[in-house]
Write a structure and sequence with these properties.
single chain; about 240 residues; alpha/beta; 6 strands
Length: about 240
C-alpha cells in the first residue's frame, strides 16, 4: 500500500496591505491620525523580520508626513527621503553610539550631542531648529549596520533619548539596553519632546499597547505568529567604525 499523502500545508495568514502585519494583529482600524510639524523618516533594515511585534509601519500610519524605506544604504538624505533636503544638519538622527543619558547626567528626554559624544551647548536652540527625524528600525546590530553604511548621517544632528520608562515590550522582546525602545516608542519620545506635544506620545503609546494586547490575545492559539529568532551564523553588513 502506498503511503498516505502528506497533510496539506496550512494556508498562509493574510496580511494587512497597510501595516503589513498578519490580519489577526492588525489594528489599523483604530489608528488616530496625527498632524506633525517635524518630518519622519524610518529606515528599516531588510533583515528585520518581526512582522508580529515590529512597529515601523504602524508608526508611519499615524502621520501624513512619514516615510518608510527598506534597504541598507542610500547616497544621501534626499535620496532616502525621496525629496530634496537643503540642510541635513537640520535633521536629527537617533544616535547609536556609547553615549548614555544616565552617564551624562542629562536632563530632559531628548538630548543633542556634539561630534565628541558630549552634551551640546545651546540645547534649546539646536532642537528648536530641527525639521525632521531619522529613525533606524531593526535589531540593535541591524540599526548599527544602517548607521555605518550611510555616512551622510554624520551631517545630521545626533540626539539620544533619556526615556522616563523602559520599553513596553517587557518580556515579549528583550532590549539590549535599558534605554532601548521600540521604534514607535522612540518616535513618541522624540516627536512629543521636540514638538512639545504630549498628545503625540499618548496617541502612539496607546497604539502600541493595543498591538501588544492583541498579540497576547492571539499568541496562544496562533503560535506561528511568534517572532522568529535571527538565523544563526548570519552577520550584519557593517563598515569599520568612523571617527
Amino acid at each position: 500500500m502506498s503511503n498516505p499523502p502528506d497533510t496539506a500545508a496550512a494556508d498562509p495568514i493574510p496580511e494587512c496591505p497597510h501595516c503589513q502585519k498578519p490580519m489577526p494583529l492588525c489594528i489599523c482600524d483604530s489608528v488616530t491620525p496625527i498632524e506633525n510639524r517635524l518630518s519622519l523618516l524610518i529606515l528599516q533594515h531588510p533583515q528585520e523580520q518581526d512582522r508580529a511585534l515590529g512597529t515601523a509601519r504602524l508608526l508611519a500610519r499615524h502621520f501624513a508626513d512619514a516615510t518608510v524605506r527598506v534597504g541598507l544604504s542610500w547616497p544621501s538624505l534626499s535620496k532616502a527621503l525621496g525629496r530634496p533636503v537643503e540642510n541635513a544638519a537640520r535633521w536629527a538622527v537617533l544616535y547609536l553610539g556609547s553615549a548614555r543619558a544616565a552617564d551624562l547626567e542629562a536632563e530632559g528626554e531628548v538630548i543633542a550631542l556634539n561630534r565628541k559624544g558630549e552634551i551640546a551647548e545651546n540645547q534649546r536652540a539646536i532642537l528648536s531648529k530641527l525639521e525632521g527625524v531619522v529613525l533606524l528600525d531593526g535589531t540593535w546590530s541591524q540599526a548599527k549596520a544602517l548607521w555605518w553604511r550611510n555616512p551622510w548621517m554624520l551631517k545630521c544632528q545626533r540626539v539620544i533619548l533619556n526615556p522616563a520608562h523602559p520599553s513596553r515590550y517587557g518580556r515579549l522582546r528583550r532590549e539590549p539596553r535599558r534605554d532601548g525602545l521600540s521604534t514607535i516608542e522612540a518616535a513618541a519620545t522624540v516627536l512629543a519632546g521636540l514638538e512639545r506635544r504630549p498628545d503625540i506620545a499618548e496617541t502612539l503609546h496607546a497604539s502600541f499597547e493595543r498591538l501588544l494586547t492583541r498579540y497576547r490575545e492571539v499568541q496562544a492559539d496562533m503560535p506561528e505568529l511568534a517572532p522568529k529568532p535571527a538565523p544563526k551564523g548570519r552577520r550584519d553588513f557593517r563598515r569599520r567604525k568612523r571617527a
